[in-house]
Amino acid sequence: MSDQVAAAIAPLPAAYDRLFQSVRRIAESDHRIRALWLSGSLARGVADIGSDLDVIVTISDDARAEFAERWRDWLATITPTLIAKPLPFAPGSFYSTTVDGCRLDVVVESVSELPESPHRRRLRVFDRDCLSVPEPAAAAGPDHEKLLDLVVEFLRQQAIFPAAVVARRDWLLGVEGVHHARLMLYQLFVESNQPLPPMGVKQWSSKLGADQRRVLEALPAVSARPQSVIDGMRATRAAFVTVGRETATRCGVDWPERLQRAIFTLAPL
DSSP E strands: which ranges in 45-159? Predict the structure, then answer.
């Protein structure tokens, strides 16, 4: 094992090292598998105790269909599992949870698919054929259309909130409404920080700047009580139209001022 691979695996709990050694041993003994790679946070060198074991398996073209049909048999030679579910975007790919509680996610590709693979950040474990991996795509900045869509959708939902929640006194729905409004503020922050490396949902806070994180942390917790829901939405609305507005404007978005005034007049809190 190379020093780079060892360093990538090192932050994971010890059970993951045993799992990785099993994956590597089985893959090396299977000549249908032409290459094995680490991906995700392991490939980026930022894995920690909460990371998964993410690997990419490159299969010879003539064995691709067979491997995809019998991936469960292949997985069983590596480790017993509690959960194993296919990933629909690539036949033979799957995510799993082992009896030790480790998370093993495997993406399968054929050799001929490699030049067009979207999985461009990877770390070589072994490679029988000296395969050529495409360079990572050029990083893009914030998507102005996506940012504007988030703003407009936030305002649209603000128009619905008084009638759907307050008038009906549906405070459970109100809790979910506040959470979703906060999610849109989080998504606006994340989009404004692009380009970011590909990261899964467990890297939730890693996608935020320190000031953005403090804004979200300062929002009050919400319970299914009238004043709690209303106060929670007021605080989220205030954060969105101040810090969120500053963020979007800094990224070049023209804030829909007239839409905001109209909706806040129709749907005051």
Answer: 53-59, 81-86, 94-98, 103-110, 123-127
Helices (H) and strands (E) in the chain, counts: 11, 6
Name the nearest CA neighbour of 171 among 218, 137, 222. 222
Q: How does DSSP assign 218-249, residue by residue?
A: HSPP--SSHHHHHHHHHHHHHHIIIIIHHHHH
Rounded to two decimals, what is the model's pTM?
0.84
Pairing assessment for the beta strands 33-38 and 123-127 based on DSSP bridges: antiparallel
End-to-end CA distance of the chain: 60
Task: Please determine, for residue 1, whether its predicted confidence score (pLDDT) is greater than 80.
Answer: no
Taking the C-alpha atoms of residue 199 and residue 137, their distance in angstroms, rounded to an integer, is 15
Using an 8 Å Cβ cutoff, are 152 and 259 in contact?
yes
In angstroms, the CA 63 to CA 1 distance is 26
**CB burial string 17-27: b at 16+ within 10 A, e below:** bebbeebbebb
pLDDT tens track for 241-258: 999 999 999 999 999 999
Rounded to an integer, what distance in angstroms lies between the CA atom of residue 175 and that of residue 99?
36
Which residue type does 257 have?
E
